[in-house]
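Task 17 of the worksheet. Students: predict the tertiary structure of the chain below and write it out as structure tokens. Keep your answer in the requested format; marks are given for formatting as well as content.
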Amino acid sequence: MTYIRDKYRPEIDGLRALAILPVIFGHAGFSLFSGGFVGVDVFFVISGYLITRILADEIAEGRFSLLKFYERRVRRIAPALILVMVVSIPFAWFTMLPEEFRDFGQSLIAVNLFLSNVFFLGESGYFEGAAEYKPFLHTWSLAVEEQFYLLFPLVLFAIWRFARRYLMAILGVAALISLIWAEYNWRHDPNATFYLLPSRAWELLAGALLALGMQNQGGERGYPPLVARGLQLMMRPDVRQVLSLAGLAMIITPILVIEHFIPWPGLLTLIPVSGAMLVIGFARDGTWAYRILTQPFFVGIGLISYSAYLWHQPVFVFARLLSPDGVSTKGYIVLTVLSLGLAYLTWRYIEQPFRKGLKLPKRQLFAGAAACAMGLVAVGLTLHATGGLPQRLSAEERMISAGNEYTSPYGKDCLNRIPTSFDSYCQFGDTSGRTVAVVGDSMSTEVSWKLAEHLTGQPIGMQQFTWTGCPPFAGLIRREDPEPCAKFHTKAHQYILESKNIDTVIVVSNWADYFSCPEARQCYTSAERPELVRGRREPERAAAIGAVMDREFDAYLKAGKKIIVVYPIPQMSHHVPRYMFSSIKSARRNHDLPGLSLEDHLKRTRVARGLLDRQVIKSGVTFYDPAQRLCSTSSEGCASEKGGKPLYYDNLHLNGYGADFLSSDIVQMLGT
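Model answer:
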């Protein structure tokens, strides 16, 4: 088998530019690039192609060395990555709350162990609000690559040596299994599908298969005649022209039209992955795609794409942390230029010397990289052990930090867990007699905690039933929701109905987000009307949701339960502790938080309140409206802090201080 070596291919650097710019623009929040994350899929294909091309060349010529391969990886990855991590530490010290700084330290550990994809999977979803404050979130893709290349060279060498004629078939089957797993698993665990290697390996293998397929040209073992004729046809100039342009379209279109709520990766990801393969395979000299991608601008951006990928996320994050009111569009344009400038300097003075000029012996290179990694891990361990060094803050800052961290100690035990039996699940106080059940999503967590405290010493027990991110009704669905949510609420609903001690059900939820669907996509509806998941069909959807609420509330009432419905909690436009802290750090020492008027709150929650109003007219159903406690009709609007203490730990979840107000009122409604 003879490998056909390629000279330097500037169009691949141009393709890198086509991948990195949408990623940066997507992270900047530019709506035109809603599918900017597709650029990472293109990077995976490029990486699989280039690495396999080099490995196949070395294996075919008897020059393969695992040590040499890892030396190249260290030279390519480590210097720029270490620089970005080191530079980020003082910025994180200055701008982050203790909890954020602790998490930053944990991410330092994960990045240096190439486990950041696993770490961030446990932290939050890639598209969740908290992700905006994680400087190293983007390194998940580096972790996926390095995990892949930990074994791939050995696997490739072993197959080449012992089953060479089946090489393409074996890798093809592996890629197919990975793709099938991705398509299957996004329905059950979309975050794991996004972050983890098993559902991403096929993209790297697609590039590898392309490299090996191109290697076969003119080799001692040709393709079957039919395949060979097909390849000859595709190499005709006019066909190459069409295929390479089609490849560009298959990359650009998803970048512009794919939205973050669409499950990814999966079968749809075949479009940009195939597009990248077509560009690499057919965008050769003489094609329009080649002319586009080899423009100096694209080639230049492609050359610095790795450093640009590393720099842009920390630059954006630290700017956000210093901007209480958010970064403007103009601000993101400036930050993008800054990121590209830092990327050029890093490429010129760090990447290039280590890759081509600085001839460090292998032992020194590995020892230096290991020492830097160990040092950064030590910093991370220190930040973890000290809880983010809260002693570096002033008294005023520590008060804000306390509000940020004043959350339920039962979060891990009483969230997103389906027990074998609910008989002893998340019970507080004496539940052998009269007991109240709190059912809801994450909005109910702190309310439950404070309610349990207020009931201490009272002849009433409490039991908490909480699953985050989905409404507290088994009969409501949305395509992107995990199946365990419905299973949990079905089981909890039945348990409460059968319980002789539970006499009151308190329902707390983020109602407005479930019952309103202004963008008309991924809306909630009943299991009986799944076609209403999409489209602007508010009256029909409201009727379907109302039917589910009627059915499940009526079941409680028929079983002799009373119901207290907690109306929507006011949702702020800003992360409250973060805004207060950023105001101090950015020298804006006014604590005039952006207000939320009662009128705006009622307008936002109109649909939800209308559906809830239908329930509270029933005998046995009462309501508690948090707005009556937290909001006023005056210019002050809805409070998000009291006496310098934040009442929220983000923009919509009450912390212990805020939940204490609500829980004390609810206890009085229970008639203790």
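Marker's comment: The chain is about 60% helix and 5% strand. Strands lie at 427-428, 435-440, 461-466, 476-477, 502-508, 525-526, 562-566, 621-624, 641-642, 645-646.
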